[in-house]
């Protein structure tokens, strides 16, 4: 356990260093410089190296280029604030809002890679919806690690919401039971926590499809 914690701490420190390095290299690239084609090329390289993705990087650079051509922005130091505002515009508030189902519980399935904050996000959403007076049920469908169920249970206790846990290793079965529980208890929202996975892991991606199908049949 101690070794596990140590490894986890190292990983988390490593990730935070990656973030600092990315933000640090952005700032040192931009500091005190005027925007020009050369700087935009260098910025493009930094964004791609930081795994922003080719499509998103292309869009960001095109937006910056337009702003620079129209003289809305001139200094490198203004770029980070500009990018923050621009990125927010990519997702208008209507897209960012949760869409609630007309009837029955609204089901939110949280999926993503390991350690990306799924369980924490489920807890945050549970807290938010509870504050809004909604009845919330959690489904502990990360059956991969025993500690994952425990982590979500602690959040459920702290927030004061119901949680459905399974006894086996089938997340579909947990979600099946959770849908029944959510309906029986008249829940407004069912939040489903899942195990971490990469989009390249076909079997695990199929498992997500199975979970979604269970929800579609039950709710
Ligand atoms: N600073 C910060 N840490 C977070 C945030 N969300 C999650 N974490 C931390 O990141 C780690 C992994 O989060 P977790 O929710 O367990 O990720 P999961 O594996 O996707 O379920 C935990 O140590 C969390 O406390 C966040 O928004 N900000
Ligand atoms: Mg988790």
Automatic annotation (TrEMBL):
Coiled-coil ranges from the UniProt annotation: none
Gene Ontology cellular-component terms listed: cytoplasm; endomembrane system; plasma membrane
InterPro entries: AAA+_ATPase (IPR003593), P-loop_NTPase (IPR027417), Signal_recog_particl_SRP54_hlx (IPR013822), SRP/SRP_N (IPR036225), SRP54_GTPase_dom (IPR000897), SRP54_N_sf (IPR042101)
UniProt topology in membrane: Peripheral membrane protein
One of the record's GO molecular function terms: GTPase activity
All residue ranges annotated as the AAA+ ATPase domain in the record: 104-219
Residues of the Signal recognition particle SRP54 helical bundle domain: 11-91
Domain SRP54-type proteins GTP-binding residues, every copy: 105-218
Gene3D superfamilies to which the protein is assigned, alphabetical: P-loop containing nucleotide triphosphate hydrolases, Signal recognition particle SRP54, nucleotide-binding domain
A biological process from GO: SRP-dependent cotranslational protein targeting to membrane
Pfam families named in the record: SRP54, SRP54_N
Localisation: Endomembrane system
Similarity comment: family membership: Belongs to the GTP-binding SRP family.
Protein's name in the database: SRP54-type proteins GTP-binding domain-containing protein
